[in-house]
């Protein structure tokens, strides 16, 4: 009995911590079509958050490459591509990192904020945060 209560408490605390963190898998939504595009897996490494494309949902684009990317990412498969890097927790948001848009190959400054339990507002911008756009990603359960 005590073990099951302890297990239940541990499960609840773990779920609560998970819900307050962007670590996990998120579904991205296309700005124009409002259709789901991909899954991005966000993970922590050395105290910073990173994200890579773990699944492409758009039919016919499963093997797409980042043809517009430059440098080492040029012509790399989008599946598995690290698109988020170096975000640090600052108050209620994660910022100070970068995001790559594999559609146009451009790199932007990035910040993220949890919007409830199952939504993540991801903002890419140039210079100051006012000069950018925000996408709302949905947690994949």
TrEMBL record:
It comes from the Bacteria. Residues 24-139 form the DUF2147 domain. Residues 1-19 form the signal peptide. The keyword Signal applies. Gene3D superfamilies: 2.40.128.520. Keywords: Signal. The keyword Signal applies. Pfam families: DUF2147 (PF09917). This is Uncharacterized conserved protein, DUF2147 family.
